[in-house]
């Protein structure tokens, strides 16, 4: 990769000027919990905790953060995002050729299974997510969605939940049946909070950007409607790229 970005590893085993691709070449994921896939969440926020700038997460990150997002996807069987992120950020998880080849070398298909998690509203089919027929893709909708009576949407498989809002437990069961052992969620905050509420959030990859947004905005995990005891994570790694921090926390008991 020309002009490869460099990072400093702050924890563990501090080192300076590591190529980003080398530093994140192996996530060393722990074994999935019994009965469901391992679930990781990848998000970015400002210093003051906002997950969007002018309504978009994209404005908070750098070129290095965008490359890191793709590096995280290499290690996961499936990558998911909420329909709100699809509408706002035109979410798609297609990997470039070099990272697709890296997946093949790991014994994985070139592209992860891409998933959009919807609810009762229509899914916009003019997004880039629908433009990659070579990638396995699925749209998850609720039982009262306008798409609930179809099996395919613009060439993409449709999974219909038995409830108006697809529940994490149901989706994870569907993924287990498909052979998916690891799921990476890339927002938004409402989807993240639903998996947290279901006690199905094992890893958090958190980029802290250097901006102070100082405005109302969403956080990386939306507030839950009912009281939820705080989860205590362990810091797995910390890297620095310029003025950004790349943090990894583990919220499960698994060993890497």
What sort of overall outline do the alpha carbons produce when their principal axes are compared?
A: globular
Superfamily (CATH H level) name:
Dihydrofolate Reductase, subunit A
Portion of residues in helices?
A: 10-25%
Structural class: alpha/beta
Per DSSP E runs of 2 or more residues, the count of β-strands stands at: 12
The SSE string, one letter per element, is: EEHEHEHHEEEEHEHEEE
Number of domains: 1
Mean pLDDT: 92
CATH topology term: Dihydrofolate Reductase, subunit A
Describe the 3D structure.
- By secondary structure, the chain is α/β, with parallel strands linked by helices.
- 20% of the residues lie in helices and 26% in strands.
- It has a twelve-stranded mixed sheet with strand order 2-1-11-12-10-3-9-4-5-6-8-7.
- A hairpin with a 2-residue loop joins strand 7 and strand 8.
- The two termini are 28 Å apart.
Provide keyphrases for this structure.
256 residues; alpha/beta; Dihydrofolate Reductase, subunit A; 12-stranded mixed β-sheet; 6 helices; 20% helix
Topology at a glance:
Layout: E1 6-11, E2 15-19, H1 20-23, E3 38-45, H2 63-74, E4 78-82, H3 83-89, H4 97-105, E5 113-117, E6 137-141, E7 152-153, E8 156-160, H5 168-177, E9 182-185, H6 189-197, E10 203-208, E11 234-241, E12 244-250
Parallel strand pairs: 3-9, 3-10, 4-5, 4-9, 5-6, 6-8
Antiparallel strand pairs: 1-2, 1-11, 7-8, 10-12, 11-12
Question: Could you give a quick summary of the protein structure above?
Answer:
Helix content is 20%, strand content 26%. The chain is of the alpha/beta class and 256 residues long.
């Amino acid at each position: 990769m020309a002009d490869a970005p460099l990072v400093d590893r702050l924890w563990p085993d501090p080192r300076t000027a590591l190529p980003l691709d080398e530093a994140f070449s192996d996530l060393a994921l722990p074994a999935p919990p019994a009965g469901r896939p391992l679930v990781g969440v990848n998000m970015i926020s400002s210093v003051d905790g906002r997950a969007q700038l002018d309504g978009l997460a994209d404005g908070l990150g750098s070129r290095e953060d965008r490359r890191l997002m793709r590096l995280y996807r290499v290690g996961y069987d499936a990558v998911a995002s909420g329909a709100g992120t699809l509408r706002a950020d035109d979410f798609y998880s297609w990997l470039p050729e070099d990272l697709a080849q890296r997946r093949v070398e790991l014994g994985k298909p070139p592209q992860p299974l891409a998933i959009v998690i919807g609810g009762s509203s229509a899914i916009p089919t003019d997004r880039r997510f629908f433009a990659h027929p070579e990638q396995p893709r699925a749209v998850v909708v609720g039982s009262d969605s306008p798409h609930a009576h179809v099996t395919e949407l613009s060439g993409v498989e449709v999974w219909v939940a038995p409830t108006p809002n697809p529940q994490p437990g149901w989706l994870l069961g569907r993924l287990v049946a498909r052979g998916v052992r690891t799921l990476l969620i890339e927002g938004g905050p409402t989807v993240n909070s639903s998996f947290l509420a279901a006690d199905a959030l094992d890893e958090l990859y958190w980029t802290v950007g250097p901006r102070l947004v100082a405005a109302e905005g969403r956080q990386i995990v939306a507030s839950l409607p009912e009281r939820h005891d705080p989860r205590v994570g362990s810091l797995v790694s910390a890297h620095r790229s310029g003025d950004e921090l790349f943090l990894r926390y583990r919220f499960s008991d698994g060993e890497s």
